[in-house]
Design a protein that fits this description.
Blueprint: E1 4-9, E2 12-17, H1 20-32, H2 36-44, E3 49-50, E4 62-68, E5 72-79, E6 82-89, H3 92-129
Parallel strand pairs: 1-6
Antiparallel strand pairs: 1-2, 3-4, 4-5, 5-6
Length: about 140
């Protein structure tokens, strides 16, 4: 379990102690068996919105946020292996700068890495089948 959460204030990230609602979400997971994401939905009283494709395909990141009227936007960045970062953006005026300066480049880098991994998987198949752009006929 984490001891701190990152909090954005005036475009700077600071580590702060976990808030009470975070402890409540953790309790829901551990004692009541509620899914981690659903626990935040319950304690923040709002649904999460994914900023990446559903799931952590190929081990890449999943970014989702909860736009809570009570606490601001809570952002969870994780993979199949676990949580990478958790950020609270309490001031709505800080949301767009945070999204463009931190989240968008992260998602872009992850998408490029996923694309490269997919290309590496396909490259041996293309070489086995022959490369039509090199004057070879394509055979299925």
């Amino acid at each position: 379990m984490f001891r701190h959460i990152a909090r954005l204030r005036r475009r700077h990230l600071y580590d702060v102690a976990l808030p009470d609602w975070y402890h409540e979400a953790n309790r829901l997971c551990e004692q009541e068996g509620v899914n981690w994401h659903h626990a935040f939905t319950r304690v923040l009283d709002c649904y999460s919105m994914p900023l990446t494709d559903d799931g952590c395909e190929g081990g890449w990141i999943e970014v989702r946020f909860w736009p809570s009227a009570r606490v601001g936007s809570f952002v969870l960045i994780d993979t199949e292996a676990g949580i990478i970062e958790q950020v609270l953006v309490p001031n709505p005026a800080d949301w767009l700068p945070f999204l463009t300066q931190h989240i968008t480049p992260l998602i872009s880098a992850a998408a490029q890495a996923a694309s490269s991994a997919q290309q590496r998987k396909l490259t041996p198949r293309i070489h086995r089948l022959g490369a039509p752009w090199r004057g070879q006929a394509y055979r299925a």
